[in-house]
Design goal:
The chain is α/β, with parallel strands linked by helices. 39% of the residues lie in helices and 21% in strands. It contains 15 helices and 22 strands. The strands form six sheets. It has a seven-stranded mixed sheet with strand order 14-15-16-13-12-18-19, with helices on both faces. A six-stranded mixed sheet has the order 9-8-7-10-11-21, sandwiched between helices. α14 links the parallel β18 and β19. The N and C termini lie far apart (80 Å). Bound molecules: NADPH dihydro-nicotinamide-adenine-dinucleotide phosphate (NDP).
Length: 488
């Protein structure tokens, strides 16, 4: 089924608005390299108008009954389900995601709104015993307007992971999608604005480049928090930019270079299936992808052969074909970046086990690739490639496995495959990362917090932790005695 491209003008105050900004950028279909449409870039006046509308929406949202707020968020879930085919279509043409993957995302997106629809009525503070006539209690309050700056790898899902908890905790949200994937958010904003009872301006979408629209949002003093998903270097730039003029809240979901550690007692079939899926799904463009395979020496050959066999069944091609398992990378920039890593590795004599360079054809396609016996000093081992490229490194002892796993500037996720409970516990307690998967990989649930250690960021998405993330605590002291203590 084919749908029409949504209105590409900035969306705020409940409708698309004529842009003040004169600049435009192109949206490209990564599977065909054809231009889909032109997108106006939001400038300072667009940002300012969206902020004014968001402020009004926030005031209205603040007064609304909490059960009613939950009903509205639940209706967003219904509306996403009703418009699923169109949202899927937009994710496929814009990001090149295989259609079956985009379909799975819808389910996750709906579950996210359903989970957070229960939140508005459950944001509770606490009372703190003081043992005297003072009563101390806390109330979590919203920030007001929160800017969400998101990445292109799972457009609809990344955007929902911000919008759902931001509005559930009483804030208004201004979203800036990645310039590679500007479309699906525009349609989502329309869908949300059409929910009866929702304040106009509660969810706005401003498209534009990071160094223009993104920086304007970050600099705007009425925006009290920035939540960001993207690369670590961009995260550092955002922090620098904020600190030049102000202090505001930040949540950072950044890059990763996650290890998957396979011990010799593991179910090797299960581990191989999980590694192939987690490494190559979405063309390897996942922050939590476990791309550093660390394997105990005496099962190395068997595990890698199993991964290779599975990879032979992967179908690379048209993302609209339901048989396709791997589509194109999102953009020419990403294609050149990933190709550069593979070319340099081959030139430097890294051991290519399968995959490698593919003849250039229309679309930004790359082959699932695996390099064997990669040293921790190699850029393949250290850098987040963000494409379907895996490395294999052997270990012989538990200590060596821990040391290799922690040998990274990142600390987002990690997988451990073993039947030995003692080994598993020892690994869990010594691995420096925010998510540990044991005998499974790539799990996600709206109630389970996710986020990183080290250069992978701070703050958590999902679950109760997201409530903490998007509220600030107000502490109140109330005295039963108003005579106050003598000072002198
Ligand atoms: P970026 O970090 O550049 O992009 C993420 C978002 O931040 C986009 O919306 C981008 O805008 C915006 N942005 C860029 N610069 C600024 C700025 N100065 N101020 C405010 N916002 C800004 O990711 P890339 O697309 O460049 O990818 C780079 C690398 O980041 C990838 O190769 C990968 O390693 C990693 N990455 C990690 C992701 C994760 O899930 N953790 C997701 C995506 C990428 P725009 O793109 O529109 O210019």
């Amino acid at each position: 089924m084919k749908f029409s491209i949504p209105d590409t003008r900035p969306f705020y105050d409940g409708i698309h608005q004529n842009p003040f900004g004169k600049e435009k950028f192109l949206s490209i279909n990564p599977a065909t390299e054809e231009v889909i449409t032109e997108i106006p870039e939001a400038d300072e006046k667009d940002v300012s108008a969206a902020v004014n509308a968001a402020q009004k929406a926030y005031e209205e949202w603040k007064e609304m009954d909490v059960i009613e707020k939950g009903n509205i968020i639940s209706k967003i879930a219904d509306a996403v389900e009703e418009n699923a085919d169109e949202l899927i279509w937009l994710d496929v043409i814009d990001a090149g995601r295989p259609i079956v993957d985009a379909q799975e995302d819808i389910e996750a997106v709906v579950r996210m709104y359903r989970y957070f629809s229960g939140v508005p009525s459950k944001i509770e503070g606490s009372t703190i015993p003081t043992g005297n006539d003072k009563v101390v209690f806390t109330v979590p309050e919203p920030y007001g307007i929160i800017a969400a700056i998101t990445a292109w790898n799972y457009p609809l899902f990344n955007e929902t992971a911000k919008i759902a908890p931001i509005i559930a905790t009483g804030n208004a949200c201004i979203l800036k999608p990645a310039e590679e994937t500007p479309l699906v958010a525009l349609r989502l904003a329309e869908i949300i604005a059409n929910i009866p009872g929702i304040p106009k301006g509660l969810v706005s979408v401003l498209n534009g480049r990071g160094e223009t629209t993104g920086e304007l949002l970050v600099a705007n003093e009425s925006i009290r928090k920035v939540t960001f998903t993207g690369g670590t270097e961009t995260g550092k730039a955002i922090l620098n930019n904020i600190s030049r003029t102000q202090i505001k809240g930040t949540t950072f979901e950044l890059g990763g270079k996650s290890p998957i550690i396979v011990f010799n007692d593991a179910n090797l079939d299960g581990a191989a299936k999980a590694i192939a899926f987690c490494g190559f799904f979405n063309q390897g463009q996942t922050c939590t992808a476990a791309t550093r395979i660390l394997v105990e020496k005496n099962v190395h050959d068997e595990l890698i052969s199993k991964i290779e066999e599975i990879t032979k069944r992967i179908v690379i091609g048209d993302p609209f074909d339901t048989n396709t398992s791997i589509g194109p990378l999102v953009s020419e920039t990403q294609y050149n970046k990933v190709r550069g890593y593979v070319e340099r590795a081959i030139k430097c004599g890294e051991q290519l086990r399968f995959g490698g360079l593919m003849d250039k054809r229309k679309g930004f396609f790359v082959k699932p690739t695996l390099f064997d016996n990669v040293a921790p000093t190699s850029e393949l081992f250290k850098d987040e490639i963000f494409g379907p490229v895996l490395t294999v490194t052997e270990f012989e002892t538990l200590e060596e496995a821990i040391s290799l796993a922690n040998n990274s500037a990142y600390g987002l996720a990690c997988g451990i495959w073993t039947k030995n409970i003692a080994t598993m516990h020892s690994m869990i307690s010594q691995i420096n990362c925010g998510i540990v998967w044991c005998n499974t990989l790539f799990e996600e649930f709206p109630g389970a917090p996710a986020g990183g250690f080290k250069n992978s960021g701070y703050g958590r998405e999902f679950g109760k932790e997201a409530i903490t993330e998007y509220t600030q605590i107000k502490t109140m002291w109330v005295s039963a005695d108003d005579s106050y203590t003598d000072w002198v």
